[in-house]
Write a structure and sequence with these properties.
Layout (H helix, E strand, L loop, with lengths): L3 H10 L2 H6 L23 E6 L4 E5 L5 E2 L4 H13 L20 H5 L10 H14 L3 H13 L8 H9 L2 H12 L7 H12 L2 E2 L1 H7 L8 E2 L4 E2 L3 H14 L5 H7 L4 E3 L4 E6 L3 E6 L10 H13 L6
Antiparallel strand pairs: 1-2, 1-9, 3-4, 5-6, 7-8, 8-9
Helix pairs in contact: 3-5, 3-11, 5-8, 5-9, 6-10, 7-9, 8-9
The protein binds glutamine (GLN).
Glutamine (GLN) binds next to loops.
Amino acid sequence: MQPKNSLDYHKVFSKIGSQLEHTDNLGEVASYIPELFNVDPKKFGIHLSTVENRHFDYGDSKERFSIQSISKVLSLSMAFKLEGTALWERVGVEPSGNAFNSLSQLELECGIPRNPFINAGALLICDVLVSHLTNPKEEFIDFVRALVGKDNINYCERIALSEKEHGFRNAAMVNFMKSYGNIKNDVEEVLDFYFNLCSIEMSCAELSQAMMYLCSNGINPLTNEEVVTPSRAKRINAIMQLCGFYDEAGEFSFKVGLPGKSGVGGGIIAIHPKKYSIAIWSPRLNEKGNSYRGMKILEFITTQTKSSIF
Ligand code: GLN
């Protein structure tokens, strides 16, 4: 028998087209990484995967895009598994209330980033992974491929290079943390790994599949392997809830009511623990760096289905 909530998703997905006609497409495509600017701002895709392995999609859901900071959820998961709770001595779990690339808090808090999802925190996580892995780039992309169940998920060299050429703020953050002894490896190696993680390309369908472990108690449903323990899956969702949208995390919680994570490529991933994972892509960003339409359509979906974690 079809689960009741699947019927709800079917109904709400059939309304997305008309809802989009009533939703502005405001904001700008990210331009501070020049290669990211070459994306058609009208693109729109969405894919929802349920724990019963049902799938609902709309629009450009199979087209790959730059996942950017959404990869921070995956790098945190891998680092948490490898480093365990000692991780929290080097990075916090508090919302920052600041822009993703802000430097000011880092100075006030002596080189300990507020959380793993602002850039400083994600760079710190990259440092942890560089310490643990023999071939960080290869091992990380293999980790992601196993979550998606596809061997052809890749970094985009063009985007990574473009970002490297303009990554002065990220370079400043790593150097600053290094001055406090909170970065253990070579600064260039950490930055190179970070830019590569941000450059990974996936479609909404692939992203929602990759994140299924966060709604399945830490288990990758494709392989039945444990990605993280159930307790750690809970904690990662908690950090997404509080920190996934930088200084717009409150707004996302208020309107959508799910843990989530955005990227400046215009993607958003949101998790309904024990129910579904949903990925959405619309490249125009609001002034906080989060997908303008993505936020609005996710709000529409949780409102229409009357389901959120609250
Ligand atoms: N690669 C981007 C950066 O480091 C990621 C930012 C984001 O997606 N919020 O600036």
